Amino acid sequence: MIGRLQGKVVEKQAPDLLIDVQGVGYEVLVSLNTFFDIPEAGAVVTLHTHFVVREDVQQLYGFTKLSERSLFRNLIKVNGVGPKMALAILSGMSANDFAICVNNNDTATLVKLPGVGKKTAERLLIEMRDKIGDIDTTASGASGNGSLSVQSDLAKEAESALIALGYKPTDAAKIINRVADESVTDAGQLIRLALKSMNA
After folding, report:
1. Which CATH superfamily is domain 152-198 in?
2. What are the Cα distances from residue 79, in Å, to 70, 107, 128?
């Protein structure tokens, strides 16, 4: 079991990271909340990890906060929720927002996330109700108003991240175009705006 990694960020393209640990490169999948906490390539980062081993795949998931890893581990125990969906949930909302959804029995917000249908949302509310006491509250992403233009490379990077998380290409393009603003200076900020808009 690989429970923790500390190394240099070699590549960073949401939701994938490549971390160099003493000459060994680890490919790590992260939520967008963790992705935003990761420094740029060349910096040293510490990740709490969860290693998934199946017949057809071995995948390492990384988190900057222990509370996010704990929530991830609880989510994948829910029937019908695999690591990919758990990562999408953690990318689409903060741990605090998820706790609010559970406490308010808010299925409407959960079903906006990719792959989460009504039955899965209801199951999440029921099975996670007694497991959210230790969820860390984190600040929400930046907010902003839509505009018509944004640098194409930033838009493409943001769209690719959303598609990798399970959103349909057409939906990803529409939401990015809707929240695009000339004041946006990086793809991370643009992704934050898109996710905030989806959950509004």
Report:
1. Ubiquitin-associated (UBA) domain (1.10.8.10)
2. 17, 16, 11
Q: Rounded to two decimals, what is the model's pTM?
A: 0.67
CATH class for the domain made up of 4-63: mainly beta
Encode pLDDT of 30-42 as tens digits.
998 888 888 888 9
Local confidence band at 23 (pLDDT 50, 70, 90 cut-offs): very high
